[in-house]
Amino acid sequence: MWPALAAWLALSLLAGMGAEEMCGGPPKAQSHSIPAPRLSPEERLSPHMPEALRCDACHAIAFQIEEQLRRAEGKVGRKALSESDYVEVLERSCSQGWESYGVQELDGEKRLAGPGLPRQEPMSVMVMGGPWPSRLSKMCHGYVGERGEAQIYGAHRQGPAALRELLCHGEKGACASTKAGGPAPPKAMQNEL
Fold first, then answer.
1. Structure pTM?
2. What is the Cα–Cα distance from 171 to 169, expressed in whole angstroms?
3. Which of 17, 68, 152, 183 could link 12 by a cystine bridge, Cβ 3.0 to 4.6 Å?
4. pLDDT, tens digit, for every residue of 117-148?
5. Which of 29, 58, 62, 94 is closest to 49 using CA atoms?
6. Are 69 and 150 in contact (CB under 8 A)?
């Protein structure tokens, strides 16, 4: 069989019948151009999370807190954690590296992207690192300071929806004045005299 195969290959090459002629040329690669999101000076330089991204950031923080508390409870047999344990877990949650989060542009709108966030577009460029990890950490510590560890842990024990409601959708939550996580409407100017 080998001699027949070798003879066929030699004849095919001599006759100019290479694989490209027999099967057609290689498929043409499609070219896609995906630009990185254009960040405003506030989005690039401010130490604070931009207003339009705070709702997404809140959902990311709630997801990470929920995951960390769930893992800690799993280690103790799904029982409630002691106060010292959940305080430690919340501190660790806020101090973690947030490098897996960044900004991507979806349909002309900048959105935070990463674990626990919806609408992740597979064919887009995400700007990670930079100011985003420190902004998320600051927001997380702010939530723990404002709401308190006991209230956050109590909401966690009621379920992920209760924790998101407490942190993000309550009266002062980052998503309270937004629809579907979009940017909040502009605030009215206040007379500070």
1. 0.71
2. 7
3. 17
4. 886 666 566 667 788 899 999 999 999 999 99
5. 58
6. no
